[in-house]
Amino acid sequence: MTDHYELYYWPSIQGRGEFIRLAFEDAGVAYVDVARQPVADGGGIPAIQRALRGELGGLPPFAPPIVRGGGVVVSQTAAILQWLAPRIGLAPHTEEDRLAAHQLQLSIADVVSEAHDVHHPISTSLYYKDQRTEATRAAGYFIDDRIPKWLGYFERVLVASPGEQLVGDTLSYVDLSLFQLVEGLTYAFPRAMARLAPSIPCVLALRDRVHARPRIAAYLASPRRLAFNEDGIFRHYDELDLQA
Amino acid sequence: MTDHYELYYWPSIQGRGEFIRLAFEDAGVAYVDVARQPVADGGGIPAIQRALRGELGGLPPFAPPIVRGGGVVVSQTAAILQWLAPRIGLAPHTEEDRLAAHQLQLSIADVVSEAHDVHHPISTSLYYKDQRTEATRAAGYFIDDRIPKWLGYFERVLVASPGEQLVGDTLSYVDLSLFQLVEGLTYAFPRAMARLAPSIPCVLALRDRVHARPRIAAYLASPRRLAFNEDGIFRHYDELDLQA
User: Fold this and answer.
1) Is the pTM above the cut of 0.95?
2) Which residues from chain A sit within 8 angstroms of residue B121, using beta carbons?
3) Is the ipTM of this complex over 0.95?
4) Which of A87, A119, A134 is the last residue before a domain boundary?
5) Looking at residue B52, which CATH number applies to its domain?
6) Residues with pLDDT less than 70, chain A
7) Could you please report the per-residue DSSP string of chain B?
8) What pLDDT is attached to residue A244?
9) Which of A82, A105, A106 has the most B C-beta neighbours within 10 Å, making it the best mutation to test the interface with B?
């Protein structure tokens, strides 16, 4: 008997939930994407609302993604992955490498938040259109300073790694997350990423290797993979990208 | 023989390093605050630069705080505390409670980043004075929407907790971190926090209990506790607080 896993995440965006979906998909582990099931079957947004009210038990979560499985309820993306990965064969083998993977996942979480804040620099309470002027200003610094600093850091980690992945001698969940980060930044800032490409060859090679993994390739080609869109974390607003 | 612990963090601010300092101090565990030692003795900013170049071994850190001890080097505040707490007697007792504490610590990390971004909404590459207009706009939403939402969440967790602390039946590192969060927000936004006080009695009672713990009280009264200042994460700019 295997564990039954449920993911609670917004049904119309990749968002932070996508880091969890990618882990389940690559592991070939069945999971229910609860909010993408019909409301009549206990799905939809009401399912997330129940989870946020703490009705799944355990610590009340602050926000999705939330995973239930093995009698446990976990929220916070990096905590979910740290807990989940050993159970589905996606964790590094040694304790030291697991600690390293978690640190890298937390750094990926930091970049993800920064990428979100570029289009919402003033407040998540406002629409993008109401903070577009500030967003345009923020984007220039994000493109010139932060993307190169962050992806340059992951490039350095890959160069120093003994294998082709970020940590240890086999692919782990944090490699899937770096793939997702690069895909998201490339969707949001295609011209900026094209300019940066020559300086991050190992990051891009890892992205390509993850993309080619059979289960990931099948997932990306399936209707389960939601398209990037302008409700998610990585948004393409042409005026925020590097100007040609 | 006990482990020898070194903390690498900016020597002139509380910042994210303070969450680590508070854990060491409350546990009564000796640690070297390396960058606060003289440069001639291997301290100062050059010590942080060496750590960031990866010269301590292990995964290259992205940013301080960094802790070395027990043959391991760890960065990312929440990862450090998760690793450190069981070694110094500040972790909850059960695996389930440890998982809950880590999720809460990650949520505290999220608020801390939001509090920082209020005074740096456009970029960390710019000074506050160069993004003051945007910061003033951001602060209003942070005060009206985000501080109540976050501290209301921790209030709810405390109300639901069987004991007087966030998790389990004894104080853990995450209670110390919530203390620091409340202290920081109160320094930065005294009028906003005074307005909010009636709705977060459990959070404030926990803050008071942590403050009264003998080793914490001794630490706060010592020169080891740096004062809040306008180079750190929690900054008091009167124009950003609730206007009287």
Assistant:
1) yes
2) 117, 121-122, 134, 138
3) yes
4) A87
5) 3.40.30.10
6) 1-3
7) -PPPEEEE--TT--TTHHHHHHHHHHHT--EEEGGGS-GGGT-HHHHHHHHHTTTTSSSPPSSS-EEEETTEEEESHHHHHHHHGGGTT-S-SSHHHHHHHHHHHHHHHHHHHHHHHHH-SS-TTS-GGGGHHHHHHHHHHIIIIIHHHHHHHHHHHHHHSSSSSSSSSS--HHHHHHHHHHHHHHHH-HHHHHHHGGG-HHHHHHHHHHHHSHHHHHHHTSTTSPPP-TTSSS---GGGSPP-
8) 82
9) A106
Q: Give pLDDT, residue A1.
A: 43
List pLDDT tens digits, range A200-219: 999 999 999 999 999 999 99
The CATH number linked to B109 is: 1.20.1050.10
Query: What residues have CB less than 8 Å from A144, skipping those under 6 apart?
Result: none
Distance CA B222, CA A49 (A): 46
Q: Do A60 and B121 touch (CB under 8 A)?
A: no
Flag whether B239 is in a domain: no
CB-CB under 8 Å, A137 with B122: yes
Tens digits of per-residue pLDDT, A67-112? 999 999 999 999 999 999 999 999 999 999 999 999 999 999 999 9
The 10 Å Cβ neighbour count of residue A92 is 24
The minimum CA-CA distance between B239 and chain A, rounded to whole Å, is: 16
Minimum-distance CB partner of A59 among B54, B82, B157: B157
Domain that holds residue A39: 5-87
